[in-house]
Amino acid sequence: MLGVLLTPTPSTAQLRTSLPTITVTAQKESENVQDVPVSVTAVTKETLEDAGVRSVSDAAAYAPNTFFNEFTARKLSNARFRGIGSSPNNPGITTYIDGVPQLNANSSSIELMDVDQIEFVRGPQSALFGRNALGGVINITSGRPSRKAWTGSVVAPYGNFSAGDVRATASGPLIADKLAIGAAVGYSRRDGFTKNDVTGHDLDSRSALFVKGQVLWTPAEHWEARAMLTGERARDGDYALSDLAGLRANPFHASRTIEGFTHRNIVAPTVHVSHTGPKMDFSTTTGFVWWKTDDLTDLDYTALPLVTRNNTEQDFQFTEEFRLASAKAAPIRLSDHVALKWQAGVFAFTQAYEQDAINNFSPFVLSPFLGFPVSQHSPQSTLDDLGFGVYGQGTWTFSNKLDVTLGARGDREAKQANLSTFFSPAISTSVCR
Fold first, then answer.
1. Quick one: DSSP state of residue 84?
2. Left, alpha or beta for 336 (phi > 0: left; psi -120 to 50: alpha)?
3. Is 70 in a helix, a strand, or coil?
């Protein structure tokens, strides 16, 4: 046996590895993730691309204590952090897309395209983010257009269940270091996983066309303006819901006389303006979100033509936020051992939401005396919401060893809602609230 003994030299005795710094905006400003006093997991662009992540719920697999309950269609994708979650109209976790809160969860699960990072911030974040942040915040940040050179990519994976996907991006400067643009377009589809035993067709298929455009303008050294437009046209199949005992006995099988659908359209323009100064930074975020959904499903989940449900929802929201903060590199020195970082802002929003959900009953289903079809609007509703908030937060650093953070926020909302349930033709008294 021949052996060789290697004696470590001073240069090889220690092996040091340095991980790249991850910057997050979990507290509305760029910070090293190790310096942020909240529980946050950042899923970077490299991870999203290498793992082929196409949705926010897929990215959540990399974040502990997160769970998404989904009913096969992407419009119903509700996040839960540490067991906290709620309905789409009153989410316990709010998703922010490029600084714009999605006040209704029906618009939060979009196709990921040209996304730079997703942050899962767990725990109450109401001091900075206000309403519907009791469980935490999901922060989605888009990639910035290239200001130095033109760049682009095309990705077209293919998988089982006829899953096909193509996404193309391009960005580059129109005026070097002054004006840059970016564009992205994609289309994805797959067959459903659940078979309808009545027809032999699949139920929960998915397909979507999605686009994104950006303009980045830096008119002066310390000023920046960025405009983004995101759109998506999703055409998903029916909800793959069925009797639980039947699913346990025969998974991925259902019986439907009606094969429904779930359609969703989203248009969302966003504008950012920011200025960095020697003592103070300023930024503003203006966001619009229009979305509309229309879905039809076999509500009795059997092979009998008993009940179907058609649900139409639409929403328009406008948000505006102005924010002031101490300069990143220039905290206020209160003494030789105490420094202060601060931020303050105002936030305003409006929301107009409408829903008309109709249960269609076949003859004799509601009663043996009703030999004609009956439609039940349950509910037909509208919501007009107007809100305003003021927040502030300060972080005192003592001798570069101890940070103490104190934040507060005040919000006021005015809501006007109409909720009614009635039958057509009228067979009972309608209920309005």
1. B
2. alpha
3. strand
Burial (0-12, 13-18, 19+ Cβ within 10 Å), 333 = exposed
Chain segment 328-354, per-residue pLDDT in tens = 878 889 998 999 999 999 999 999 999
Question: Please, which residues bridge with residue 155 across strands?
Answer: 167
Distance from C-alpha of 93 to C-alpha of 8, rounded to nearest angstrom: 52
Q: Supply 244's token pair.
A: 């639980």
Residue 104 in contact with residue 95, Cβ under 8 Å?
Answer: no
Cβ neighbours for 13, distance < 8 A, ≥ 6 positions apart:
none
**Contact between residue 242 and residue 196 where contact means Cβ atoms under 8 Å apart:** no
**Residue in this structure with the two tokens 């502030």, named with its chain if needed:** 392
Residue 27 tokens read as: 């507290």
Tell me how crowded residue 224 is: count the other CB atoms within 10 A of its CB.
17
Whether the link from the prior residue into 363 is cis, omega within 30° of 0, is no
71: pLDDT strictly greater than 60: yes
Q: How far is CA 409 from CA 29, 110, 128, 318, in A?
A: 17, 29, 7, 20
Task: Tokens 């303008």: give the residue.
Answer: 217
Cα–Cα distances (Å) from 18 to 22, 44, 62, 109, 283, in that order, read 12, 17, 21, 34, 33
The model carries a pTM of: 0.90
- Other Cβ atoms closer than 10 A to 209: 15
Average pLDDT, the chain: 90
* Local structure of residue 400 (DSSP, 8 states): T
